[in-house]
């Protein structure tokens, strides 16, 4: 990559732009903030599909862990977040990241909801506020609209992947590249990585790479043996169906191997100027759920196993290394946080509150509440209590400090004064968010 000449010019443009004044109606989707001078770091956002904490290293949930040395290296050199909340299924999480809005505000609350193209994507937000200073690409899963060209319409420079929720066969699938469809028989995790490496290598300015792997989403399968440590497992459907966990783990380990190859492909000076964000999009599929989660409290549910996802941040600008962070984080928060990373000054926009300062300061201001929802319920929590309200009127209340995995619903019991006060505060905040 040839960045040095461009960086000099780009910094000059940024310095000049700081003297200009832009006025945009706050009701419009496309909000522009005054950029600030930065070192123009590259951003790689890696989204794993259907991953909760139970199969992940460095989290206490689950007993069968994937061997993920590349992710563990990011954990050792960065921050592991314990309380990141997403949605219980994939499309709403991806929509929340790309718009910085909760699902009821961006139109995507459940799978197959269509995100309006009038929404200002994170990629366009970055472009508008950096004088088109960043190249952007999405590789892998889109699953936000039926027309894959919408990614390009909404400001993404390059798209290569799939438009739907998954593939029928990881070894035989349709690849869409900027609107053109071809058949690929290359293992999808490897192919996406190859294409991303080629794209990054061709860039001449800072880049924002959205790497949306389909792994380890179903179908359960055995990944190529050179990419995982699960061994030469049988590949007949009966064996896989009988115990899908090692196959799920093989796909997750393959993701880690290919993620490592992507990161290792970066020239030294580029890697040194890159921040990496890893996040799961929702809970584990119920057939491979591990204790303390159950089949009823993972993907598709508003329980912790469905929405409390792994998240790791490492790289340039992160000086808290090898630490755990308990701050409450919403998936929406990636919007303003990535905006701060590229030099946009706004720390709060739409439903996104930046956690950028947490990358360097453990005592930075933190969220008081996080929120998630699905088509028939919503949930909200603070540092201690979690409340769930279903459309049929039923309620759930948990003290997560003493009941981390929601075994004892306090509704229907005599609530303590503390529990009563927290329930009222959670409902009030939820009403404020939703109205």
CATH H-level name of the largest domain... which superfamily? Alkaline Phosphatase, subunit A
What is the distance, rounded to the nearest whole angstrom, between the alpha carbons of the first and last residues?
A: 48 Å
Q: Got a strand count? A: 16
The largest sheet is: 10 strands, mixed
Counted up, domains total 2
CATH architecture of the largest domain: 3-Layer(aba) Sandwich
In terms of DSSP E residues, the strand content is 15-25%
| N-to-C SSE string, H for helix and E for strand | HEHEHHHEHEEEHEHHHEHEEHEEEEEEH
Query: Shape from CA axes?
Result: globular
What is the helix content?
25-40%
Q: Could you please describe the fold and organization of this structure?
A:
By secondary structure, the chain is an alpha/beta fold. The chain folds into two domains: 42-285 and 304-361, Alkaline Phosphatase, subunit A, CATH 3.40.720; 376-434, no CATH class. It has 13 helices and 16 strands. The strands form three sheets. The protein has a ten-stranded mixed beta sheet with strand order 6-5-4-3-7-1-8-9-2-10, with helices on both faces. α6 (150-153) links the parallel β3 and β4 (158-162). It starts with a helix and ends with a helix.
Please specify the SSE layout and strand pairing:
Elements lengths: L3 H14 L24 E7 L20 H8 L1 E8 L4 H10 L3 H4 L15 H8 L5 E7 L8 H4 L4 E5 L10 E5 L2 E5 L3 H14 L5 E6 L24 H6 L2 H20 L3 H5 L1 E7 L23 H4 E8 L7 E8 L2 H10 L5 E2 L2 E2 L16 E5 L2 E5 L3 E6 L4 E5 L17 H18 L1
Parallel strand pairs: 1-7, 1-8, 2-10, 3-4, 3-7
Antiparallel strand pairs: 2-9, 4-5, 5-6, 8-9, 11-12, 13-14, 14-15, 15-16
């Amino acid at each position: 990559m040839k960045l040095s000449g461009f960086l000099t010019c780009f910094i000059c443009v940024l310095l000049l732009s700081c003297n200009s004044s832009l006025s945009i109606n706050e009701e419009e989707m496309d909000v522009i903030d005054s950029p600030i001078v930065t070192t123009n770091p590259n951003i790689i956002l890696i989204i794993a599909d259907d991953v909760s904490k139970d199969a992940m290293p460095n989290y206490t949930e689950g007993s069968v862990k994937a061997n993920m040395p590349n992710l563990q290296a990011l954990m050792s050199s960065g921050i592991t977040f314990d309380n990141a909340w997403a949605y219980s299924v994939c499309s709403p999480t991806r929509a929340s990241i790309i718009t910085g809005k909760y699902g009821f505000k961006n139109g995507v609350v459940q799978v197959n909801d269509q995100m309006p193209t009038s929404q200002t994507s994170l990629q366009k937000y970055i472009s508008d506020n950096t004088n088109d200073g960043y190249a952007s690409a999405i590789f892998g899963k889109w699953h936000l609209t039926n027309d894959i060209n919408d990614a390009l319409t909404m400001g993404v420079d390059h798209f290569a992947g799939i438009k739907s929720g998954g593939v029928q066969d990881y070894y035989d699938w349709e690849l869409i590249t900027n609107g053109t469809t071809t058949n690929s028989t290359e293992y999808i995790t490897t192919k996406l990585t190859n294409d991303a490496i080629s794209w990054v290598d061709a860039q001449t300015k800072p880049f924002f790479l959205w790497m949306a792997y389909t792994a380890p989403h179903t179908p359960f399968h055995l990944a190529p043996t050179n990419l995982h440590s699960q061994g030469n497992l049988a590949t007949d459907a009966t064996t896989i169906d009988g115990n899908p966990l090692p196959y799920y783990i093989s796909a997750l380990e393959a993701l880690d191997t290919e993620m490592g190859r992507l990161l290792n492909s970066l020239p030294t000076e580029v890697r040194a100027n890159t921040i990496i964000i890893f996040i799961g999009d929702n809970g584990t599929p119920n057939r491979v759920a591990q204790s303390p989660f159950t089949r009823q409290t993972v993907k598709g549910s508003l329980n912790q196993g469905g929405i409390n996802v792994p998240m790791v941040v490492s790289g340039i600008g992160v000086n808290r290394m090898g630490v755990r962070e308990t701050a409450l984080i919403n998936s929406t928060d990636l919007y303003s946080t990535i905006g701060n990373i590229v030099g946009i000054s706004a720390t709060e926009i739409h439903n996104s509150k930046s956690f950028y300062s947490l990358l360097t300061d453990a005592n930075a201001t933190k969220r008081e509440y996080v929120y998630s929802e699905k088509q028939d319920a919503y949930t909200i929590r603070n540092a201690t209590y979690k409340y769930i309200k279903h459309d049929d009127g039923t309620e759930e209340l948990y003290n997560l400090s003493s009941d981390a995995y929601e075994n004892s619903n306090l509704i229907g019991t005599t609530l303590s004064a503390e529990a009563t006060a927290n329930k009222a505060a959670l409902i009030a905040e939820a009403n404020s968010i939703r109205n």
